[in-house]
Amino acid sequence: MNYYFFPKIEGLESSVTLVNFPCQERFPIRDEIQKVYVTWSDGKNWHYRVVGKIAPHEAIEFHHSDLPENIPDSPFMFFHYKDLPLSSAELIVSDHMYFMPTWRGNIKIYSEHTATSYEGDYQHEMVVHIKKGSLVSLSPMFQNHPEIKNKFIFVNMTLSPEIREHLLHFVDPKRGVILHTTQVYNNSCNIISLDTVEIPTETPVLAISNSIAGIPIYFSHSPDMRQLSFEHTHPPASLVVFGEGLYFQRKFKDDWLKKILG
After folding, report:
1. Which of 11, 105, 169, 204 has the most Cβ atoms closer than 10 angstroms to its Cβ?
2. Residue 194 belongs to a domain with what CATH number?
3. Domain check: are 172 and 103 in the same one?
4. How far is Cα 122 from Cα 154, in angstroms, rounded to an integer?
5. What pLDDT, in 10s, does the model give residues 16-39?
6. Residue 83 pLDDT > 90, yes or no?
7. Which domain holds residue 40?
8. Tens of pLDDT along 183-203?
9. Inter-residue contact 191 to 8 (CB < 8 Å)
């Protein structure tokens, strides 16, 4: 079961398009209308509310502005065939709809002028299997221009509803210098402005944390919101074509975390 999120950025709107059909015809699909839920954590419990329905082979776009007013600003979204409780002490996860490759949804940020999106989700195996992780994200996606605004979107979900503070660092890997340190929170879609950070021109930026894992997403826009760019990076293991990708990923992460954070 996959989860989706709404990046909340001032001056922009966001939406999630849910897709109730698999990416390959050989995968089965439940022949029934399913309930669309939003979920959020208050630090003590996960809460669930039905906000719509989705039929087999249907795709529906849900806009953040159309959600009920009593739902917090950055909820997660999913769909399920069961009637779920209003709250639970642990996030409800299921292998419902889960195949490899899994089918996805679409997360969009838009202004009155244009829109940008990517095919994405927060997959349930990340929730189930990553109890305590770390982050090392290397990206050339920041736009180094005085008239371009850069934001880092960081998404995390855990089984526990507890909300904890973590430190996230942005690093110039060529000089081994921390450019900026900020706080992020688990069970949240964090938005970090990097407008005051001096982004290097000769090397990609590293985003690192030794206490939290999640999805790093890079968002850039012009001041008039007529130009938008929105993309996530893949984990270091995806850079390895053959061999032990997870070993490379651990080695890559350990080396940078020790070099920068000691």
Report:
1. 105
2. 2.60.290
3. no
4. 11
5. 999 998 878 888 888 899 999 999
6. yes
7. 2-128
8. 999 999 999 999 888 888 888
9. yes
